[in-house]
Each structure stands twice: as C-alpha cells, then as structure tokens.
C-alpha cells in the first residue's frame, strides 16, 4: 500500500471536518505539523494515534486516541479546539485572541492500561 | 545544568512550539522527547509527569509539554506563561 502523503491527508481531513460542522486549524504550518505527527505514529505503530499524546504501540489500548480521538467533539464544543489544535470551530479560527490551552481530558490511567 | 526541563513528544506541534519559544527567549533548557525513550524509561517519566501535574494548582491531568523550572510547572503550551517563566 502506498502511504498517504501529508497533503493528501490534509485534503481528506478538511472534507471530514466540514462534514462534522468543524474546520481544520487555519494555521497551515501547525496543521501540517500535526498531520506529519499522525503519519509518523502510523509508521511506528500501524495506527494514526494522536501526535500530542504518548502512544503505547497497542491499538486496542489507544483506541480512544486514534485521530479523530473520542474527546475531539467535547473539546471543540467546550474550548473551540481539540486537544492538538487540529479540529476547531469556525469561531476559533476567526478569533485568535479567545484561544485557551485545552486541558487533557483523557484519564491518566489509560496511559498505563 | 539547565534551569528548565521540558518533557515533550517528538510528534507534538505544541511541544515543538514550546521548545522553539524557549530557544528564542534564550532560556537555558533541556528537552526530553519521551516517545523516543525505551518503554521502561517512558513509564518512569510518566510517573514524574503525573507528580508534577498533581502539584499544579488547580490540579490538572498530565500532558505534554510539561515544563518545569524550580517550583513552577506549566502543563500544555501557554505562550504567556512560558514568557513569564523565562
């Protein structure tokens, strides 16, 4: 299988975000950095784990943080952005001054499984 | 010895931003990319990162980057707090 390029994944995720009423972060450099991190995790572990969290290498254990993670919608709803700053609301993209650091929602115990 | 320690992930854009900002500010810091360490070392560092997050007021869930200077701990990327720290 030919690995997907970061640019292709950007296109796919843009469409996915729009289908959910969300957007990708309009800071292209940040967004591409996340996408490259996702693809690096896929290369290492065989699944597209969140690049902002420590991946265990065990797909089952990390199923909650396979991007898009199960915490994304709650974080976009509450903070305007997912934990990584990949998926965001339209308002978040338009208002840089209103952004806050998104706290980790994933329970710490999950890291040790 | 570095004044500031950064616990980071090599894949994480906010960790990269934190390291770049510290460099730009001329801070004396050392960074550890936890995901690149062997598993047993990762687990030891996770315990450390958890203890640091517990010391935050209010207490927070541990995450990356975690930045420590003396008694000051910052969990997550926060430009203002990093500038204050340096």
How is this structure best described in words?
- The complex is a heterodimer of chains A (113) and B (86).
- Chain A starts with 5 loop residues before the first helix and ends in a 19-residue tail after the last helix.
- Chain A contains four helices and two strands; from the N terminus they run H-E-H-H-E-H.
- The relative contact order of chain A is 0.15.
- In chain A, helix 1 crosses helix 2 (28-45).
- Chain A has a single domain (6-105), classed as Ferredoxin thioredoxin reductase catalytic beta subunit (Ferredoxin Thioredoxin Reductase).
- Chain A is mostly helical.
- With 86 residues, chain B is an alpha+beta fold.
- Chain B has one domain (4-85): Glutaredoxin, CATH 3.40.30.10.
- Chain B has three helices and four strands.
- Chain B has a four-stranded mixed sheet with strand order 2-1-3-4, sandwiched between helices.
- In chain B, strand 1 (4-8), helix 1 and strand 2 form a beta-alpha-beta unit.
- The A-B interface holds A 30, 33-34, 36-38, 40-41, 51-55, 83-85, 101-108, 111-112 and B 9-17, 34-35, 42-43, 46, 50, 53, 60-64, 75-78.
What's this model, at a glance?
With 113 residues, chain A is mostly helical. Chain A has helices at residues 6-19, 28-45, 72-79, 90-94; strands at 23-24, 87-88. The mean pLDDT of chain A is 95.
> What is the CATH-assigned architecture of chain B?
3-Layer(aba) Sandwich
Q: What name goes with the CATH superfamily of chain A? A: Ferredoxin thioredoxin reductase catalytic beta subunit
State the oligomer.
heterodimer
Compute the number of structural domains of chain A. Answer: 1
Q: Write the CATH architecture name of chain A.
A: Alpha-Beta Complex
Which word captures the global form of chain B? globular
H and E string of chain B: EHEHEEH
Helix percentage of chain B: 40-55%
> What count of domains describes the coordinates of chain B?
1
Number of strands of chain A: 2
Q: What top-tier CATH class of chain A fits best? A: Alpha Beta
Determine the mean pLDDT of chain A.
Answer: 95
Placed side by side, the strands forming the largest sheet of chain B appear as 2-1-3-4
Helicity level of chain A, as a percent range? 25-40%
| SS strand fraction of chain A | under 5%
Count of DSSP strands of chain B? 4
**Molecular shape of chain A:** globular
Q: What is the spatial order of strands in the main beta sheet of chain A? A: 1-2
Structural class, from helix and strand content of chain B? alpha+beta
**N-to-C span of chain A:** 31 Å
């Amino acid at each position: 299988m030919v690995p997907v390029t970061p640019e292709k994944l950007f296109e796919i995720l843009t469409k996915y975000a729009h289908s959910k009423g969300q957007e990708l972060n309009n800071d292209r450099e940040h967004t591409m950095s996340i996408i490259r991190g996702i693809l690096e995790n896929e290369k290492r572990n065989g699944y597209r784990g969140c690049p902002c969290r420590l991946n265990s290498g065990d797909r089952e254990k990390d199923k909650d943080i396979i991007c898009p993670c199960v915490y994304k919608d709650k974080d976009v709803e509450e903070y305007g952005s997912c934990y990584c700053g990949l998926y965001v609301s339209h308002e978040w993209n338009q208002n840089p001054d209103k952004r806050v650091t998104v706290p980790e929602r994933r329970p710490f115990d999950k890291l040790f499984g | 010895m570095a004044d500031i320690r950064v616990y980071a992930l090599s894949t994480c854009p906010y960790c990269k931003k934190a390291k770049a900002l510290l460099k730009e500010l001329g801070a004396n810091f050392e960074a550890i990319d936890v995901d690149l360490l062997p598993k047993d070392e990762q687990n030891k560092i996770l315990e450390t990162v958890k203890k640091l997050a517990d010391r935050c007021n209010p207490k927070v869930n541990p995450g990356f980057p975690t930045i420590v200077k003396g008694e000051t701990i910052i969990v997550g990327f926060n430009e203002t707090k990093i500038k204050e720290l340096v």
